[in-house]
């Protein structure tokens, strides 16, 4: 894509609510250190905000056009877009400042001085030894989508996007029995498995019958809720539901929580099981 040099936009620090460390980092942005050229306009009028997960492709080039790295398969990447949660994820300073000013579907070229990417002093994001940290570079970013997510694990290894709200307030927990429609896809949306037809998948909460991250996410859902759970590799524990798949960094689980019921082992040895059918009344 051609870049309109006349359309280059100079960045100055954006004034908005942010964590104190981000405010300190933004003070490093000086006129000319971060420039933006629009390559393809986006749609709508809303832009990402703190708490949104942003999904984007990024290709890094030298100023003379040599590709340094890319998420795109046609440029040697894995073809899986990057996901970050604004206000939570560790990001290079140029992306931290630039992406919140983009529209969905927009493609922009950001020209960054070294101190705006991995050359920043105390940069919270590491780069490979071969990365030209001291060079001024072009970062071509396509903002694919953004939306609010619930952070399930503090390390951002499990996130949830609600697509349909459920009913009530109760969520499944150990040792509830759960029925759910579940499909699993790779980060580039290739289907791994699906339990979306026939009978919902049945499992007992707390028995390691589904991957840890999937169970953590379902444990925040209410009856009838539909959600997408983004689960990183460290939470993809082996289970009867899904064996370990080599080479997969993350899995997207599409889940509809159909039903769950409280179960108690009254004697502790499995001989007498109580299932709650309906709540009683009184103290």
UniProtKB/TrEMBL annotation:
It comes from the Eukaryota. Keywords: Isomerase, Rotamase. Signal peptide: none annotated. Residues 1-30 are annotated as: Disordered. It catalyses: [protein]-peptidylproline (omega=180) = [protein]-peptidylproline (omega=0). Residues 51-147, 194-261 form the PPIase FKBP-type domain. GO terms for cellular component: cytoplasm. InterPro entries: FKBP-type_PPIase (IPR050689), PPIase_dom_sf (IPR046357), PPIase_FKBP_dom (IPR001179). It is an enzyme of class 5 (isomerase). One of its GO terms (molecular function) is peptidyl-prolyl cis-trans isomerase activity. This is peptidylprolyl isomerase.
């Amino acid at each position: 894509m051609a870049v309109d040099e006349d359309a280059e936009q100079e960045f100055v620090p954006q004034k908005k609510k942010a964590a104190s460390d981000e405010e300190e980092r933004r003070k490093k942005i000086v006129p000319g250190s971060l420039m933006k050229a629009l390559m393809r306009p986006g749609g709508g009028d809303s832009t990402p905000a703190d708490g949104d997960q942003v999904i984007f492709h990024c290709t890094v080039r030298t100023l003379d056009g040599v590709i340094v790295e890319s998420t795109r398969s046609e440029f040697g990447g894995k073809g899986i877009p990057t996901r970050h949660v604004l206000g939570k994820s560790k990001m290079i300073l140029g992306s931290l400042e630039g992406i919140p000013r983009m529209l969905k579907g927009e493609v922009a070229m950001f020209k960054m001085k070294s101190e705006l990417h991995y050359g920043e002093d105390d940069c919270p994001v590491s780069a490979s030894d071969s990365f030209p940290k001291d060079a001024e570079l072009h970062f071509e970013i396509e903002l694919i989508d953004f939306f609010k997510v619930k952070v399930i694990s503090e390390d951002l290894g499990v996130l949830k996007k609600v697509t349909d709200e459920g009913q009530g307030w109760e969520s499944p927990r150990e040792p509830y029995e759960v029925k759910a429609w579940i499909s699993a896809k790779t980060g580039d949306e290739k289907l791994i498995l699906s339990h979306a037809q026939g009978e919902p998948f049945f499992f007992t909460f707390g028995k390691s019958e589904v991957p840890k991250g999937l169970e953590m996410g379902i444990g925040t859902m209410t009856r009838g809720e539909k959600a997408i759970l983004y689960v990183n590799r460290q939470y993809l524990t082996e289970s009867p539901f899904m064996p370990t798949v080599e080479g997969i960094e993350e899995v997207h689980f599409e889940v509809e929580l159909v039903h769950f019921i409280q179960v108690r082992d009254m004697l502790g040895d499995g001989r007498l099981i109580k299932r709650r059918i309906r709540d009683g009344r009184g103290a």
